[in-house]
Amino acid sequence: MSDLLANLAMGFSVAFSLKTLFWCFVGVFMGTFIGVLPGIGPLATISMLLPVTFHLDATSAIIMLAGIYYGANYGGSTASILLNLPGTPSSAVTCLDGYPMAKQGRAGVALMATTLASFIGSSIGILLFTGFAPALAEVGLKFGPAEYFAMMLLGLVAASTVATGAPIKGVAMVVVGVALGLVGTDVQTGQQRFTFGLLPLADGINLVSLAMGLFGIAEVINSVGKVAQQQSTYRSSVLPWTRDFWRAMDPGRDDWRRIPGASVRGSAIGSFFGALPGTGPTISSFLSYALEKKIAREPKRFGQGAIEGISSPEAANNAAAQTAFIPTLTLGIPGDVVMALMLGALIIQGIQPGPRLVSEHPELFWGLAASFWIGNVMLVILNLPLIGIWVAILRIPYSILYPSILVFLVIGVYSVNNSVFDVATCILFGVIGYAMNIMRFEPAPLLLGFVLGPLMEEHLRRAMLLARGDPMVFLQRPISATFVAITAALLLLALWSSLRSRRVEGFSAPI
Amino acid sequence: MPGAGAVMRRIDLGDVVGGLLLVAFGLWFALYALEHYAYGTARRMGPGYFPAWVGFLVAGLGSVIALFGLLRAGDPVFVRLRPLLAVIAATSIFALSVERFGVVPAVVALVFTAALGESPYRLLRTTLLSLGLAVLAVVLFGWGLGIPFQPFQWTP
Questions:
Q1: Which of B46, B62, B129 is opposite residue A400, by nearest beta carbon?
Q2: Quick one: average pLDDT of A446-458?
């Protein structure tokens, strides 16, 4: 316990340095900004800012990127409530009761409730992160290559089958991602694979080009001419120093009582599913809404502005956004595609996420944990007194937004290696991403496979070498056998659901 | 998204085409790996071992997707050509001009081309936006982050 306190104290000393505070603020500010804006989400933003992080030290970089991720969850609910249009997929369910509240003139109340719930969810998620991550790292130290390979397999299969609309297509995209990840120099033999004599491909396909193409350019092509300017329903005073401003946010006694319970239930669901591979903020928010509706005394209130219907999902998606860092940092297994980008950012900085990260880079790990608290406090300030700013931002027309996005995108890609080749790669993947979009193949699993593919090959080769070429090794070691069994069960489930019928389409909100 | 009244195709065209493309890509990937890189053994895998299996797996999954796609109806497939071409053209012009003419002309050209993706064409707004973004690019990325591109240059 005293260890934990000492570590946290060290973390806060890192996080309170002026430089780190600045990047933390940049992260949560950008996160709220893009969370509020429909049509651009955390994934596109993180890939856009990835090149910027190369100019920072690893701790500032990860703190900023993390801030974007959890900040987007705060901002996402604002667009859901005011426009009935989710700013991020994880806030889609908040529309169901948030928008009716806004139409009843209770938008301020809804914003207050979601901000409070988000803060409660994040706090619980951070506590679990600081408590469990070091313990999980201890377990991870005992893993050999066979366990790692099996765990990555499970992570990829879970992420591509559980969260997506069509499981087989998800798995196929993961494997395509693995294939693309193999381009470049083979680390064991030095053999150049699939480079076709092109020098820039010797280091592999640039992660930034791939991510920005699939998510940035493809998303812009998809949204041009479709995203219409929105009219906000928020009519209250936007000045935080007036009494009207705060009065508009007072939920009243009945609703005050409902927020804490719903938030805690949502946090529990979010914390659990956030830490699992394949499920994350989006699924957590949907599950917690379903739970609230089930246990409510008057389920009829849901859909007409029930405050539990926004508190619980917002607590859930924020808790999940925090606990998602547990497996990413301690095992090196990203649960979703945003975490895969974080992993990529760390690897580019020369830091290999895994069980040794906590002991080898304590300032990074504990600094990040401390920055979560600071960032969340900043977010409460950004989202309550400054709500007027975000309401104004909702009025930026897309015809101004998308050329700006394209400019930042191409300059960002160019700046990684000062390379026109990278920009060309990015455009190519933009076209591929748009084609995938048309044919309803999801790009997120592809990126996940791309990041994990080379690691999987390495662990597979090492495991097979140790086992003298006997593939049964994956079934003989108990931990790895468990992972393989769960993977097989998920695949059977996916096959069955594909055979049965078309499943409900995935959540196709901005990524 | 088409409404409920839209005519449904008898097959899921997106899945069939996408699946067949995956088959082609997977087979090519696997055969290329087998032909050019050492396969090795299961114990000592060569650089061709893993890619070959990954390629065949892609092809296998692609054929299953295409097959399922043949057996059920799907939503019609739309290609929105105008935004597609505008965005490709805009980003390509940037790529071709940034090292020849400098970042300011590259950004301005990008913004003017990208604006073709939507109608009506707003000349004043586009002009102001392009100039603002060009200044931002020079100040923020050039001076701020030290990316070595010139505001203007002439090396066609």
A1: B129
A2: 90
Report if residue A203 sits inside a domain. Answer: yes
- Residue A366: give the domain boundaries: 2-500
Residue A510 lies in a domain: no
ipTM value > 0.85: yes
DSSP letter string, A389-428? HHHHHTT--HHHHHHHHHHHHHHHHHHHHT-HHHHHHHHH
Choose the mutation target among A30, A156, A175 for the interface with B, i.e. most B CBs under 10 Å. A175
Angstrom distance (rounded) from CA A468 to CA A98: 59
Residue of A nearest to B83 (CA): A221
C-alpha span between B5 and A394 (Å, rounded): 33
Question: How many structural domains comprise chain A?
Answer: 1
In chain A, residues with a C-beta closer than 8 Å to the C-beta of B118 are 224-225, 399
Q: Residue A434, CB half-sphere, CA atoms under 13 Å: how many?
A: 25
Nearest neighbour of B141 by CB, restricted to A176, A411, A441: A411
Residue B37 in contact with partner chain A when CB distance is under 8 A: yes
Token code pair at residue A464:
């097979």
Confidence of residue B5 (pLDDT cuts 50, 70, 90): very low
Q: Which two tokens stand for residue A401?
A: 């937004």
Q: Is residue A274 part of a domain?
A: yes
Q: How far apart are CA A439 and CA A435, in angstroms?
A: 6
| Rounded distance between C-alpha atoms, residue B13 and residue A122, angstroms | 43
- Kindly report the three-state secondary structure assignment for every residue of A12-32: HHHHCCHHHHHHHHHHHHHHH
Instruction: Identify the residue whose tokens are 């050039």.
Output: B142
**Rounded to whole angstroms, how far apart are CA atoms A209 and A341?**
12
Q: Tell me the mean pLDDT in the region A346-373.
A: 89
Among residues A414, A407, A391, A399, which one has the least CA distance to residue B132? A407
Q: How many CB atoms are located within 10 Å of the residue A350 CB?
A: 7
Helices (H), A84-184: 95-103, 107-141, 145-161, 167-181
At A474, which amino acid appears? Answer: F
- Name the closest residue on chain B to residue A226, using Cα atoms: B118
Question: According to the model, what pLDDT value does residue A399 have?
Answer: 85
Q: Which of B18, B78, B91 faces A427 most closely, judged by CB atoms?
A: B91
pLDDT one-digit tens code per residue, B59-72: 999 999 999 889 88
Positive/negative CA dihedral, A188, A193, A199, A203:
negative
Asked, for residue A368, whether it belongs to a domain, the answer is yes
